[in-house]
Design a protein that fits this description.
The complex is a heterodimer of chains A (446) and B (129). Helices cover 28% and strands 27% of the residues of chain A. Chain A has 446 residues and is α/β, with parallel strands linked by helices. Chain A folds into three domains: 30 residues, no CATH class; 248 residues, FAD/NAD(P)-binding domain; 107 residues, FAD/NAD(P)-binding domain, CATH 3.50.50.60. In chain A, helix 2 runs parallel beside helix 10 and helix 2 crosses helix 11. The longest helix of chain A is centred in the last third of the chain and has 19 residues. In chain A, 52% of the residues are buried. Chain B has 129 residues and is mainly alpha-helical. Chain B has two domains: 34 residues, no CATH class; 83 residues, Orthogonal Bundle (Cytochrome Bc1 Complex, Chain D, domain 2). Chain B is built from six helices and two strands; from the N terminus they run H-E-H-H-H-H-H-E. In chain B, strands 1-2 form a two-stranded antiparallel sheet. The longest helix of chain B is centred in the N-terminal third of the chain and has 14 residues. Chain B is globular and about 40 Å long. Chain B starts with 8 loop residues before the first helix and ends in an 8-residue tail after the last strand. The relative contact order of chain B is 0.21. The chains are: A alpha/beta (446), B mainly alpha (129). Chains A and B meet through helix 1, strand 1, helix 2, helix 10 and strand 24 of A and helix 1, strand 1, helix 2, helix 3 and helix 5 of B. Strand 1 of chain A pairs parallel with strand 1 of chain B, so a sheet runs across the interface.
Chain lengths: 446, 129
């Protein structure tokens, strides 16, 4: 510590003596001043664990984090294989900014290379076709059989055919873009092709869905783009199956009624949504009255369920078969032994979001390491959510909450101040959002 | 220096600079308690301790093992971190760090502070600064 401070002090005095004002980032008021840790090496723990195998399916926020922390905390004798079908992960977080032109899609690519080079995770490109929970093996599409002591499923979500649209529609003229990738670019292109007076309609499914603030954030960013690109008289109509705004209600209400007043038309409590692909009419019921409107861009966010590998494992025992029931002390499946489910695919009281998935992954990794050492999971785990949401291309809001384990309900419950949102929408929040995002991604992928 | 440390660089670094300009004090330049960034290739290690899983809640915003992000926590003393968290508890609830400080029991804060203080680095600081 002392040497660190001496070095810094010595540096500053040199600067002052020479008249040079090449201030270090800290003094420029840059929030991203300490690095995100991606260029630092972390020593693997020495645990004495040997010849234990964990297979992780899915290389998103939850899967990448659990693979990293299993090695970091379990040591070199805990062999981790990560099975992922795509060559890189495209971040859903920040992908709404691609729609408004604030970011490029390519800036959201995260490779799994550091998991291998820094932590020794073996990455397998492939798709799971079978899981044998008795024999503790899974089979990939290429025929490879992978044995495991524990299997962690982190597949994220898949989307229902809904409102008259199918997967083929989502992939062509009606992108949901709720899984970042080609659909994000398609939707961006549709938005930029809008002309003055055109309407953008978005639908939000009944909860639970991925990223509670996400749809409201998207409405704001599309409105911001339409306004700042000189397309006058455009409308952003938001049809919400939920009875009210699901996250940051104060700030999003402010954004809808003030920041983007006259553009965003927010309609809660909508049901019976139906899309006519030919006429581009969206019909729905609100307040008992059947209504319809036509739109240049129709952005349906479909109802969601756990990725197929959860069904394959027989672990989709919650929410009418949509999600995986888990014990939140370890994220162990409540249906199938030696299988854990983390992230959006699991049914918990926590939001389906990347920051939370990262922490669920750490709780799961810790519990698996303890199990290999003959110990019980931490009986009082804590998790947290923190999430920034852009409101325009230069301002943002945030929400945060700390969850403690409640032994009576066996669920994670908000503690202390509860769920809190930013006191105001600000450009400072927008700047801090980038530090948050970069650091979160490095904690998960590097 | 006895001035409180600060987890928000924007709010505090100006006073740190002024302090440095006014005097080459025998105390750290940064009244805000920041530890300098780690250089590329630094190796960081930490023992398994009871506070590890709790402390990992900090890593999304302060980097793995607390080595960066909004503020580097690794290398700070357990008392410094504890003092900071207790101070955040007393402040406005509509700040992210206040919400987090209020979300843990005192015992949990002590455990996670002890863990962060146990993180060790065995490489040099960045040479370019």
């Amino acid at each position: 510590m002392n040497r660190e401070y001496l070095n810094r002090r010595h540096f500053l005095s040199l600067c002052l003596a020479g008249g040079a004002m090449l201030l270090p980032p800290l003094l420029r008021g840059d929030d991203d001043n300490n690095g995100d840790g991606s260029n630092v090496n972390f020593a693997l723990a020495q645990t004495g664990i040997t010849n234990r195998k964990v297979v992780v399916v899915g290389g998103g926020m939850a899967g990448a984090t659990v693979a990293k922390y299993l090695r970091l905390w379990g040591g070199s004798g805990l062999e981790v294989t990560l099975v992922e079908k795509d060559p890189a992960y495209v971040s859903n977080i920040m992908s709404n900014l691609v729609l408004s032109g604030g970011r490029t899609l390519s800036s959201l690519n995260y490779s799994h290379a550091s998991l291998t080079s820094k932590y020794g995770v073996q990455v397998r490109n492939g798709t799971v076709v079978a899981i044998d929970a008795q024999a503790r093996t899974l089979t990939l599409a290429d025929g490879t059989s992978l044995p495991y002591d524990r299997l962690v499923l982190a597949p994220g979500i898949r989307f229902d055919d809904a409102y008259g649209l199918t997967q083929a529609d989502y992939e062509s003229a009606f992108p949901h873009a709720w899984h970042a990738g080609p659909q994000t670019q398609t939707l961006r292109d549709q938005i930029t092709a809008m002309q003055s007076g055109d309407t953008f309609v978005m639908t939000i499914p009944a909860k639970p869905y991925r990223c509670p603030p996400g749809p409201y954030e998207r409405a704001c960013l599309v409105a911001d783009y339409l306004k700042t690109s000189g397309k006058s008289g455009c409308k952003v109509v938001v049809l919400d199956e939920n009875p009210a705004i699901q996250a940051e209600p104060h700030n999003f209400n402010l954004a809808f009624t003030q920041t983007h007043a006259g553009i965003i038309d927010y309609r809660p409590g909508v049901s019976g949504i139906k899309v006519d692909k030919t006429t581009r009419a969206v019909s729905f019921t609100q307040g008992g009255a059947q209504q319809a409107l036509t739109a240049k861009v129709i952005n349906v966010i479909p109802p969601q369920r756990a990725g197929t590998v959860v069904d394959l494992a027989g672990a989709n025992n919650s929410g009418g078969g949509r999600w995986a029931g888990v014990d939140v002390l370890s994220y162990a499946s409540t249906a199938v032994p030696n299988i854990h489910i983390i992230g959006d695919a699991s049914a918990t009281t926590q939001p389906k979001a990347g920051h939370v998935a990262n922490q669920e992954a750490k709780v799961c990794a810790d519990a698996i390491v303890r199990a290999f050492l003959g110990q019980q999971p931490d009986p009082a785990p804590v998790t947290n959510s923190a999430c920034y949401s852009p409101i325009t291309n230069s301002t943002a809001s945030w929400l945060t909450v700390v969850y403690q384990y409640d032994g009576n309900s066996k669920t994670m419950v908000p503690s202390g101040a509860g769920v809190v949102e930013a006191a105001s929408i600000s450009s400072k929040n927008f700047s801090q959002m980038n530090t948050w995002f970069n650091t979160l991604m490095a904690d998960s992928f590097a | 220096m006895s001035a409180p440390s600060c987890l928000n660089p924007k709010a505090c670094c100006t006073s740190g600079l002024i302090a440095a300009l006014l005097s080459f004090a025998a105390t750290p330049v940064f009244s805000d308690g920041h530890a300098p960034a780690l250089g590329a290739g630094a190796t960081v290690s930490a023992p398994a301790m009871p506070g590890r899983l709790l402390a990992s809640n900090c890593f999304q915003c302060h980097a793995t093992n607390g080595v960066g992000g909004f503020d580097r926590l690794a290398g700070l003393g357990a008392n410094e971190i504890m003092e900071e968290m207790l101070e955040k508890r007393a402040k406005s609830k509509a700040k992210i760090m206040s919400v987090h400080a209020l979300g843990y029991s005192r015992e949990q804060l002590e455990q996670l502070s002890a863990y962060l203080a146990s993180v060790r680095t065995n490489a040099a600081r960045p040479s370019s600064r």
